[in-house]
Amino acid sequence: MTRRTLRTFSAAVAATAAIALALTGCSSNSAGGGGEAGGESAGAVRMGTQPWLGYGQWYVAEDQGYFADNTVDVKLSSFNADADVNAALAANKLDMANVGAQAALQFMEQGVDVSIVLLLDSATEADAILSSEKIGSVKELKCKSVAFEKGATSEILLAEALDDNGMSFDDVKVIESSADKVTPMVLAGRVDAGVTYEPYVSEAIAADKGVRALVTAGDYPGLITDVLVVRNDFLDKHPDEVRSVIQSWDDAVAFTAEDPAKGREIIAKGVGSNVADLESAFDGVHYYTLAENRELLTGEYLTETLPALVTVAKRIGLIEGDVDAKRAIRSEYLS
């Protein structure tokens, strides 16, 4: 099989934007309208998200009224696949979106005018390569079928695990699948292994069908991070709304730190699961505060982590050209 070629958003948008919008499930209780990005009034800020724990603080912000407290109206729309939320953002159907850092780099290479404004989370145990317990190592995946979503954090994790073992995608049978479909495929034995994230990792292990986490993101610290990207036209015309959104995230992180039980309950409900099934998964996610963002987005994440991710993404063909990681971040909204 050939090495994975670059995903081009320009081609994907036309084909998937309509599907993305059909999959949208609006969870906001706000009454405001969804004004066009870049207008005189922002209206409801259109944010794309997914049922992933790392984005869960937005559910806390909504539940606890932090958006209202910070005088911003946010409409949360949930998508099941990275490709769908990416397409909606590229097609200007969203003002901002929660994405893996590698997706932000892809946007920039493909000319989608967005910037990273907030580091949301990093995963340790919450992203994993799932396999049968009969598979004892990554090397044993050679010539085996592995399901994962191309262009997503799952591809990054698999790429690093394979490379660490002297292998590449050429050594496995790649099966394309959205993250929510991976666990059922692994449990049914339709593939030998799969890469996904929580809550799907916990669901696979809890099924007690001999599936385990062969590799987790914790084996590669700092590799899997998620960010909030915002269209630059929206950033330039609505800076106060962006700052209010960021402050609402920080308020939610603080609430969850003070009352973990309640915060986790809200997040679990938001991603369609329950706390009991996600107890260990929560321990595998770190939520970044505003203070941490001020330090990292002007320091280590800017100068080391993101450039390292560019190197990985280029090696596996997620991006092909030069992407200036330092220009990807706009930290002035963290004030």
UniProtKB/TrEMBL annotation:
Keywords: Signal, Transport. One of its GO terms (cellular component) is periplasmic space. Transmembrane segments: none annotated. The keyword Transport applies. Gene3D superfamilies: Periplasmic binding protein-like II. PROSITE patterns: PROKAR_LIPOPROTEIN (PS51257). It is found in: Periplasm. Residues 1-22 form the signal peptide. Belongs to the bacterial solute-binding protein SsuA/TauA family. This is Aliphatic sulfonate ABC transporter substrate-binding protein.
